Amino acid sequence: MTTTPTPGEAALGYEQARDELIEVVRKLEAGGTTLEESLALWERGEELAKVCRRWLDGARARLDAALAEEEQEAGDAGGAGG
């Protein structure tokens, strides 16, 4: 499995990918599409879900790093007094 986004995926922001994914799900739930169309929608949905997951994983990593830095700074400041 590759984690490198395709050029089209790299251009999609989280909100764009999420909104398109919602639309894909709506179309699949509504039915009325051919098997081929349904498969294409499913595949697009999988791609969009991966884009969203990468954005969320990146946000989580940034948050974790910021929290760790804050904890380290608080620990350094607490040990300096005395």
UniProtKB/TrEMBL annotation:
Purpose of the protein: Bidirectionally degrades single-stranded DNA into large acid-insoluble oligonucleotides, which are then degraded further into small acid-soluble oligonucleotides.
Subunit structure, as described in the record: Heterooligomer composed of large and small subunits.
EC number, UniProt record: 3.1.11.6
A Pfam family it matches: Exonuc_VII_S
Name of the protein described by the UniProt record: Exodeoxyribonuclease 7 small subunit
Gene Ontology molecular function: any one: exodeoxyribonuclease VII activity
Keyword Hydrolase on entry: yes
Lineage, top ranks: Bacteria, Bacillati, Actinomycetota, Actinomycetes, Kitasatosporales
Family, per entry: Belongs to the XseB family.
Reaction catalyzed: Exonucleolytic cleavage in either 5'- to 3'- or 3'- to 5'-direction to yield nucleoside 5'-phosphates
Localisation: Cytoplasm
Superkingdom: Bacteria
Top enzyme class: hydrolase
Keywords: Cytoplasm, Exonuclease, Hydrolase, Nuclease
